[in-house]
What does this fold into?
Amino acid sequence: MPNRVAIIGVGCTPAQPTTPYLSFKELMFQEAERAYLDAGIEASEVESFVTCAEDLNEGLSIFDEYTPDQLGAVQKPMHTLTQDGLHGIADAVMQIQSGLVELVVVEAHSKASNILTPEWILDYAVDPVWNRPLGFNPHAIAGLEMNVFLHETGITPDQCAHVTAKNRTNALRNPLAAYPARTAPGDVADSPYAFYPLRETEMARTADGCVVVVLASDDRARAGKSQPVWVRGVGFANDSSTLESRDWIRAEYCRVAAQMAYRQAGIHNPGRDIHLFEVDDTYAYKELQHLVALGLYSRPGDAGRAVASGVTKPNGETPVNVSGGALGMGLTLEATGLYRVAELVAQLRKQAGARQLPHAKVALAQSWRGVPTTSGAVVVLSSE
Amino acid sequence: MSMRRVAVVGAGMTKFMRRALETPKELAWLAAKGALDSAGMTLDQIQGVVHGTAPDAFDGLHMKGEYLSEGSGGWKKPYLRCYVGGGTGVYAIAQGWFQVASGLFDTALVVCEEKMSTCLPHPQAAFLTIFDNITEQPLKPNLLWIFALEQNRYMARHGIRVEEIARVSVKNKRNALGHPSAQLGAELTVKDVLASEIMAWPVHRLMVSPTSDGAAAVVLAAEDVAKRVTDKPVWIQGVGWCLDTTYWTNRDLYYPEYVEKAAWMAYHMAGIREPRQEINIAEPYDPFAYKELHHLEGLQLAPKGKAPQLLADGVFDRDGDLPSSPSGGLLGVGNPIAAAGTMKVCELFWQLRGEAGPRQVPGKPRRGVAQAWGDLMQVGTVVVMGTAQL
Amino acid sequence: MSGEPRTVRGTPLELADLKKGKVFTTAYVPKIQYAWDTGVAIGRYLEELKNGRLIARRCQRCQRTMVPPRMFCERCFRSTDEWVYVQDTGTVNTFSLCYVSWDVRRLKTPEIPAVIEIDGASPGMGIMHVLGKVNPKQVRVGMRVRAVWKPPPQRTGSITDILYFAPIKGKTTKVGTAKKPR
It folds into this structure.
């Protein structure tokens, strides 16, 4: 990647089911202070700011209006992306690589607990002419996708249950996680269906939280006091937004995004070259689908066998979602990808405490924006 | 660090209209296709897509950028949706610029769309939700309030009269008569503007841009691609954007400092020291008549409080010393929020290539500036474009 | 008409075309609700409104007293330091006479939104509210005004606990050279 870019600071608040005592502005201020301290910088040094937010999740239109003050961005270049925090990282990387700026801040947060009608908001994202009049709960799209994905790949519902069990159990070691629980695959298999074949325990629950990340140019990162984590590649892509014409099996958005990131990072064999994965698991089967799209398995069915045999556990060959993933940490809206980045930064800096993996040097985070979208992003990080 | 050079190589837009038959996706597609056709390119040659659109409330869609992605050509491609409220249409060009300037892509398609008519009974009602949900919305404010408050402050500080501001409407609506996409081109007098009803004193109806449906798009390319596809690339010489405090009631609204900062960011990049001498043509954001004057001052193209006099002197006429909004602006062409800003960039592209037909500014302009503005009177976005490769 | 754009596409419709059923439409009323966390600063602001007082936050570094209050100083980028009560009087910084409601109904009597610089806060620190009990023709930039509160039992902890700001008789501060509204 030309003009190397590094993450030099992270601030993130523990994800929690509710955060009634602080406003989103106060949450953002707190995490900005933490991130700038971690990066060893002053807010005044930052040259550009990116927030990732959706109006309807905030309950405010043109949400970027409400973002600058609490990050120290008043009268500075600042804009909003209506996409996941990983898209924000990609944006910051491009700004730095263009030579325009050297120090960029990316922020995303969730006040999901403030949304009283989450399913209706999701319904509002469904195609207004073709699909909305059918009146289905938008999560049913995941049920449809899971069904055809299992049918085509031979992955079994039992194998999917291992994803929930692994991730929620992993979350017990993560103080940032909102929904840790000691869970066995059998617990999942016994739980009721929500959107057949999807079970309720296979759906990540929303949580509140906020993450602020500081990115710097090569020169800036080397000159700084904090331990940099290098961005080796970024990728992002959309498949079709139309339900009727998208690829339901292969998570194309993830495949295209990964190819883009791998090209920059010079990765040819992701299973060998990358030591740690944080991938989207909004629904349990999604973890497996995304691992296939990331190119980890030549036969899709291997993803199911891998999780069931423990290969993707923290002590396995290819650890996936050591943080607990969205199933364990909670789904923090546009901040979901940045929580994964926070985990990777902690791991690569050897600051992950009880979750620390001994040999991780190259790591990957991947995000998906949930139903009904086909929007995803990939970031590859390394400690050197 | 030397930056990678990026040019605009194609531009396209739909008609701007009060109510379109086309869906938001179809509008985006029409503009995108127009821009690709004008560049003689196909979607296969586009590596990254940037979409700009303002509040989701208008189109009646949550995650509107996702819905619009394939209309904008984002299918199986890297796709970003950016926004800074009304400033989006010009900001999106900066977003496209650093996609290409970073070296990550050689080409980018930037598409901005807005379909406001979807919102019933009137799109203005959606604007309620741009105000602070706790300290302002309970007062039931509307968008006219903040514009009128700002205009009054601007007038009060400088002793400007309403009729001086009305001239902007006269000029822009007349300019729009030459624009094939225009919604509200008209031959009017200052008297007509002042005779139109008062919406929110000091703002009269003919000093307000309409609500519109429409889309606009440009194709950006790195130097080698640009030179291959056209012999008339228009170079992006500078980009700038700046966001001011949320607490708009704590600022003096008479002058847009954030526009000044965004402008200098772009001017420095373009090597401009004397904007008044070095810029031949301006497309400042004019959703309300006074905004054009306010922004010309922020852009350093008129001294503070002096833009009304320069306007009266004919400086900003199409054949004046510094033509301003030769397109017809938002007042004349229409205001599908994000698309309106991109329309201004399209206009610079056509003007600088000498392709603006009846709107063509005389004297072969070599450099222009386009600017947009938005949020709670808080964001400035600026692009400087020119025929010279810096 | 020549000149770019050469191919202008898009199909204009009239509202009547929809009403007459000339084109098919779908209708949808969003069912969207929120309960926003007010947080520390605005939570206290609302609590004090219920008490009939305006409160601000002060930053010791830049010495500004800020209203609406915030827990961070956006200029110094540090936590603000103390709560300060400010007056419920102020000066009109700018105003409008608005003949259109938020949902675009024409109004015979204008609403008078204004930015009011609050006494006791730093210069230029205003809040948005409306003016009342005043002849619209007589509103001026620089006019001195005082909050008119709802009776205590009717207050809910909202900005609307202040009904409006009304002129303090005979007082105008010279802030600018305002023009007469028509």
Notes: Chain B has one domain: 6-120+210-386. Chain B touches chain C through 77 residues (CB under 8 Å). The CA atoms of residues 317 and 323 of chain B lie 5 Å apart. Chain B has a mean pLDDT of 96.
